[in-house]
Amino acid sequence: MIMVIxxxxxxxxxLGSFVDALTWRLHEQARIAHHKGEQSARRRHRLSMLKGRxxxxxxxxxxxxxxxxxxxxxxxxxxxxxxxxxxxxWHTPVIELLxxxxxxLSYAVWPLPLHDEGLVVFGFWLVFLVGFMALAVxxxxxxxxxxxxxxxxxxxxxxxxxxxxxxxxxxxxxxQPVLAAGIIFSLFWVLFQVSRGxxxxxGDVKLALVLGLLAGTPAKVFLLIFLASLxxxxxxxxxxLRGRQGLKxxxxxxPHLLLATVVVVLWGTAIIDWYRHFLV
Length: 280
Hints:
Elements: H1 2-31, H2 38-47, H3 72-76, H4 91-109, H5 117-142, H6 147-168, H7 171-195, H8 202-215, H9 218-240, H10 244-247, H11 254-279
Helix pairs in contact: 1-4, 1-5, 4-5, 5-6, 5-11, 6-7, 6-8, 7-8, 7-9, 8-11, 9-11
């Protein structure tokens, strides 16, 4: 078990480095999307995750393999680019460590047996964690949940539901996630329409489909909404205490939704069972 946790932690570190590069490249691609000319075409080529090489965000110098070791390279270089000596944000190793920790933690506390369908769902979950981390980073940095990440996650969540229905042949495996997704999507859509995007963003509405399908049941989706709202409220308190300027601050809700989803997927059943026992 310890060996598996170590391997998953290392895999998470590596994919955390990928997430950091992915979010920055997607943002740069969006920024120059409408630019024309040969120079813009070359920049788009360099920014491609499939064709381009890893580069410094400041000087755009291509990075050598020794510059790409998760956490280690950042510490070795003292948090600075080897070529232009510009500071590399502390969020780079934090992203890597967080994703590595989430991979390892998910294996250690996975609520399903790690064989047959439980192992399949765990494989899906690791992919979702990568997407969640990318969305959280993007939302925190640029206050947006990009469709280029959200839409593939919707497709992946729908695929997981279909795979599990095919595997178990139980109608509840199909209708409960769909109902949960319908509940949270409808609620967020109404909030978005009523507030004209002031209370909740359009990206959150689309992300709700993913979160509902992953929550899997109406009870868990209500728990998810409660936990996300609680996390968002607690995160808002320090900002509001700053006074007039704090009231105007924009606080992204996406990371709180994603954090709540992680809690619900890993511990949702235990929390609901505890609550029901508490009421009896």
